[in-house]
Design the sequence.
């Protein structure tokens, strides 16, 4: 099962840090790909690419694609679409069903007010609580539930930097 995160509604001047953080969480919490829909923001792509180069991993980064077409193609290829929204069903009500399906997952994370078409295109509208909160935290919680915490112990091939967990202080290994 592959997991991709689609960021919609990105506004380059307002959202560049948050969108980059959505991509960082996608990578750190086990996603195979990050898609920036409807706009090609090279700064976000470059930031995520630098992290991949230093910290390892092989997350695919796609930028500037038509979000609606990407979702439709995903579904045509037998993938399922999950939209994270505070208006959806609670994650605990649907996560077992989502996890049991071995279909590839496309997780939609919005920036601005999400147009209603996205609610209709998805297989699941999932909430991480029904109060306003950060899309970054919603994605982290959802991916953690999806992977049952296993993503926290993932090792990244080709990393140049690795943190060695310590009970006191910090230990960082720099590789050549």
Sequence:
């Amino acid at each position: 099962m592959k997991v991709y995160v689609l960021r919609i509604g990105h506004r380059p001047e307002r959202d560049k840090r948050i969108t980059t953080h959505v991509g960082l969480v996608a990578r750190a919490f086990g996603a195979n790909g990050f898609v920036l829909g409807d706009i090609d923001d090279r700064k976000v792509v470059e930031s995520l690419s630098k992290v991949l180069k230093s910290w390892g991993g092989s997350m695919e980064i796609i930028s500037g694609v038509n979000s609606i077409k990407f979702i439709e193609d995903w579904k045509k290829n037998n993938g399922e679409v999950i939209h994270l929204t505070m208006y959806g069903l609670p994650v605990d009500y649907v996560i077992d069903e989502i996890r049991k399906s071995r279909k590839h997952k496309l997780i939609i994370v919005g920036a601005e007010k999400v147009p209603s078409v996205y609610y209709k295109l998805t297989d699941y509208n999932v909430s991480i609580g029904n109060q306003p909160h950060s899309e970054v935290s919603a994605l982290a919680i959802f991916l953690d539930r999806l992977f049952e915490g296993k993503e926290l112990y993932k090792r990244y091939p080709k990393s140049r930097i690795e943190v060695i967990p310590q009970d006191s202080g910090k230990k960082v290994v720099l590789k050549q």
About this structure: The chain has one domain: 3-174. The domain at 3-174 is CATH 3.40.1280.10 (Alpha/beta knot). Residues 12-28 form the longest helix (17 residues). The chain is about 40% helix and 25% strand.
